[in-house]
Design goal:
Mean pLDDT: 86
Low-confidence stretches: 1-11, 745-751, 878-957
Structural class: mainly beta
Number of helices: 5
Strand content: 15-25%
Shape: globular
Number of strands: 62
């Protein structure tokens, strides 16, 4: 604030023209009086005719001109334009109209008439449109605040394009305070801003800033507040700080700032607030951070910070909040240097790798409001002294290794407690119905895997509950009707992984009208499929025994984003409207008894990322309108009766990563029908066309265009995710993470894989009728880990170029007509665990060394011209000039009834409550007839490990 105004003399009245201008300005608005606010302008008449004595007005003592007008939060409603009498107050130096409602009108260009202004605040007042150029001519401005002009959806209403930010920086050189939060700038920050030496406050929250932040701005000599939050495309890094810096607030959360926190950050002796949440920062947190003795808030979550030893926090005696969530810290204990910080109100160390026992000293921090230690590896038991935390509102210890017996009564002493997350530990929660204790009104209860045997009866009276998670307990019998009605504000309910068999009350539509998330998956529920409320966003009922057809009411669920009806007994035809639900991201109908055609109409502009319809009885052709699904990443139509040619037209989908069409009736050649398309399947990583009727040569043109398979991506350890959405309840993260996963089928036995790394890439063309040679350019697909071309009619020599597939872990060329020698270049494949060339016409010595020393006889069966280890035939005594045809364990390549299936399946392990418990890519099983990965279980683990990725892990027999 800039306070420089002098009160007018009581002997001199304000000027008449300015009196009239003020009254006309007041009368141009509706005064919407609120109970909590007394509008200033309503008092003007009662304060006499001297406008210089009115509330919110300052006059010059000598001239009586109105020089200050503060009508902030004065309940003004209406539009304002350049003809407003306000702009007749030409001597104004101070103008504050913040926190009113100007009904989306534009900032009048006549504001430029107020050339004496040094202070202008129009924040939070529903102004919209382009900021007028005339503002950049107010050369005397020391403070400009146009922030938080938002619509009712909290989207910014103002834009700064003409003038742009550069114009402001060059013209308004006296600015000390600039707040443009939520103004649409959508451009880089000009370097001219670094020349504004008077700046003390710089606020650019959620402005759409682009490119790199000018590092010199950090060195502005008077800068105290720097706020860049929620500019997701703004990059940058931190400079070396100096001891003369006056920074008090540094907020770059939700940007793409990268690099490390410099050691010199400890020189910011005035720093009170540091927030670098959700950036791309990494490395160690420098010990010098312990020098920031004035720090109140330290927020470092959702980065890649690491370290075994925590910085010493004991000097940060003013600290009220510390958040290290979602990093890679491997502390051997919860940092004990926090124990002396008696002002702490929030501690969040969730989602790290912290070990040790639950700290008993933490119950001495009696000011704590929130304690988050979830998703670590803490052991021991919860201390009995927890009731000492009288002010505790939220306790999150989910996903640890805590053990023992926990009495629910312990938490009833915490009268302010409204959020409790105990899920997925090793303790048993004992809940006794209290008779003489008041149970807090919870907003969140997460009690998954707490060895509960019945739904706690006290929940009947939890009328304020927002989230209830009771997954993975020993609950059985009927789901009580009251659970859907206990709270009018219940929006998330998870009862998955129990043994419920039915509903207490039979109903077609769930009675709750507020539910956004409902998960009943992996129970034993029967009967017709219940209809969720129209408000539903995520509806998961997979792994039950629901039967009958999908009710047509699902067509009215325009907000539905994720629908998982997989692994039930549903039948009939699929609803045609599924392709018209504009909000849908995930559609999983796998493993039912649906028949008939795939829905014909998929509208343009849909948001679908995953479509799973495998393991049904679908027939007909693929609808060409699937090409409208421009965001589609995963398509699984395996195990149906679809008759069509290869859908080359899906190759134009720019995001397609996984395509599963196995075990259908596809036929014909695989060729490019539209040569003018430069990129077909540019992001494809996994393709499974096995067990179909494809003929002709391998698609050389497609191999040449599969750019994603050519990339090694060895440093990319992220997972393919179809849905990644976080909801916050009292700072509790509910991570609705649904990564892609696979199931490999072996005569009805499924092995489930919860996550697929970005680096995982596979081609399975087995059990078709491909012929001709393997093109040399397959060797360009250097990212491949799995290649299965077995059970075809391929011939010629095995190309030596396969030796360039450095990531290859499984290669199956069995049941073909290959001739010649096994290329010695295959010994270059240091990660090759599974190798099968059985039942071909190969001759000569088997290459030796490296991974070839681990392969067994079965890898080479049926090639009577091969010799050398591991075969008993010695090359010295073996004559390979006259060879009988290769033997076969099948009736030939044309007997597709006996050919193996290779089925990939999306499985969300623990996807029940949005929590992800999973294993990485592993365990490979394969069928006998296609010989896919035959004898895997007896192959030794290679000793070398993949850099930056995860090895395939094998099942044990």
């Amino acid at each position: 604030m800039i306070f420089f105004f002098q009160l007018s003399s009581h002997q001199q009245l304000c000027r008449k023209d300015e009196y009239l201008a003020l009254m006309q300005f007041k009368d141009s608005f509706v005064i919407e009086r609120q109970a909590s606010t007394s509008p200033k302008v309503n008092l003007w008449k009662s304060q006499g005719v001297d406008c210089c004595s009115w509330e919110g007005i300052w006059c010059d003592q000598d001239t009586s001109h109105v020089i200050g007008l503060d009508l902030s939060n004065s309940c003004l409603f209406g539009s304002i334009n350049s003809s407003s009498s306000l702009f007749r107050l030409g001597h104004l130096q101070y103008l504050n109209l913040a926190l009113n409602d100007f009904n989306f009108s534009k900032i009048p260009s006549a504001v430029g008439n107020l050339s004496r202004l040094t202070y202008l605040n129009l924040s939070g007042s529903f102004f919209s449109g382009q900021i007028p150029h005339e503002i950049s001519k107010l050369f005397n401005l020391a403070r400009l605040d146009l922030s938080f002009n938002l619509d009712y959806s909290n989207r910014g209403l103002l834009e700064l394009k003409r003038p742009d930010l550069n114009s402001l920086a060059q013209n308004l050189t006296k600015l000390g305070w600039l707040d443009l939060s939520y103004v649409g700038i959508n451009s880089p920050i000009p370097k001219a801003l670094a020349n504004m030496s008077s700046l003390t406050h710089l606020h650019f929250g959620q402005c759409g800033l682009l490119e790199k932040f000018p590092i010199d701005i950090f060195q502005l000599p008077k800068l105290q507040f720097l706020d860049l939050d929620n500019n997701w495309e703004l990059s940058g890094s931190f400079p070396e700080f100096h001891s003369h810096s006056q920074l008090r607030v540094l907020d770059v959360r939700n940007t793409t700032f990268s690099g490390e926190l410099p050691i010199s950050i400890g020189m910011l002796s005035s720093l009170e607030y540091l927030d670098v949440s959700s950036c791309n920062l990494s490395g160690w947190v420098p010990p010098s951070i312990g020098n920031l003795t004035k720090l109140h808030v330290l927020n470092l979550p959702n980065n890649s910070f690491r370290g075994e030893n925590a910085p010493l926090f004991s000097n940060l005696t003013q600290l009220t909040q510390i958040n290290l969530r979602l990093n890679q810290f491997t502390f051997s204990e919860v940092p004990s240097s926090l124990a002396s910080l008696n002002h702490l109100m929030k501690i969040d160390l969730s989602y790290n790798h912290i070990t040790g026992n639950f700290p008993s000293w933490i119950t001495n921090l009696t000011d704590l409001r929130q304690l988050g230690l979830g998703f670590n590896m803490l052991q021991g038991s919860l201390p009995s002294s927890i009731p000492r935390l009288k002010n505790l509102e939220a306790l999150y210890v989910y996903f640890n290794n805590l053990s023992g017996i926990v009495e629910f009564d312990t938490f009833l002493e915490l009268k302010s407690l409204n959020s409790l997350a105990l899920s997925f530990n090793n303790f048993s929660l004992v809940i006794k119905t209290p008779t003489n204790k008041t149970i807090p009104k919870f907003k969140l209860l997460s009690l998954a895997s707490c060895n509960l045997r019945e739904i706690p009866d006290f929940l009947r009276n939890q009328s304020e509950l927002n989230v209830l998670i009771l997954a993975s307990n020993n609950l059985h019998g009927q789901i009580p009707s009251w659970i859907f009605n206990m709270s009018a504000s219940l929006w998330a309910l998870c009862l998955s992984n129990n043994n419920f068999t039915s509903f207490e009350e039979s109903f077609l539509v769930f009675p709750s009208t507020s539910l956004l998330y409902l998960d009943l998956s992996f129970n034993s529920l029967k009967g017709s499929l219940p209809i969720p409320p129209l408000s539903i966003l995520l509806y998961l009922v997979s792994g039950n025994m629901f039967s009958g057809e999908i009710p047509p009411q699902f067509c009215n669920m325009t907000s539905l984003q994720l629908l998982d009806l997989s692994q039930n007994n549903l039948s009939g035809t699929m609803l045609q409207c599924f392709g018209n639900l504009s909000s849908m991201l995930v559609l999983n109908l796998e493993g039912n008894n649906f028949h008939g055609p795939i829905p014909e109409t998929w509208e343009s502009g849909n948001k679908l990322k995953e479509i799973k319809m495998g393991k049904n009885n679908l027939q007909g052709r693929l609808p060409r309108s699937l090409s409208n699904c421009k965001m589609l990443e995963f398509l699984d139509l395996g195990n149906n009766k679809i008759e069509d040619t290869f859908p080359y037209w899906l190759g134009a989908l720019p995001e397609m990563r996984i395509l599963i069409l196995h075990s259908n009736r596809f036929h014909g050649t695989i060729s490019i029908k539209v040569p003018e398309i430069d990129f077909l399947f540019p992001k494809l990583r996994i393709i499974d066309l096995s067990n179909n009727g494809f003929v002709g040569t391998l698609p050389m043109d497609l191999f040449a265009r599969w750019n994603a398979m050519a990339d090694l991506d060895e440093e990319n350890a992220t997972y393919l995710q179809v849905y990644n959405y976080h909801l916050m309840v009292n700072s509790f993260i509910i991570p609705f993470q649904f990564p892609y996963s696979m199931t490999i089928t072996n005569k009805g036995e499924k092995l489930e894989y919860a996550k697929i790394l970005e680096i995982f890439k596979a081609i399975d063309f087995s059990c078709n009728k491909f012929e001709g040679e393997i093109p040399e350019l397959v060797g360009n697909l250097k990212g491949l880990q799995l290649l299965n071309l077995s059970n075809n009619i391929l011939d010629g020599q095995i190309p030596s170029a396969l030796g360039y597939l450095a990531n290859l872990e499984a290669l199956d060329l069995s049941q073909n007509k290959f001739t010649g020698r096994i290329p010695t270049q295959l010994t270059w494949l240091n990660f090759l665990e599974v190798f099968n060339v059985s039942h071909n016409y190969l001759t000569g010595p088997i290459p030796q060394g490296q991974q070839f020393d681990t392969f067994e006889n079965s890898s080479f069966d049926g090639n009577l011209g091969l010799c050398g280890m591991p075969l008993s035939r010695k090359c010295d005594y073996y004559n390979s000039k006259s060879l009988p045809p290769p033997s076969s364990t099948s009736k030939g390549n044309e007997d597709f009834g006996l050919l193996a299936e290779f089925n990939w399946k999306l499985v969300l392990l623990g996807y029940g409550c949005g929590f992800l418990i999973g294993v990485v890519i592993g365990n490979i099983v394969f069928t006998r007839n296609c010989e896919w990965f035959m004898k895997t279980f007896r192959i030794r683990q290679p000793t070398r490990k993949r850099k930056g990725g995860e090895r395939l892990k094998r099942s044990k027999e």
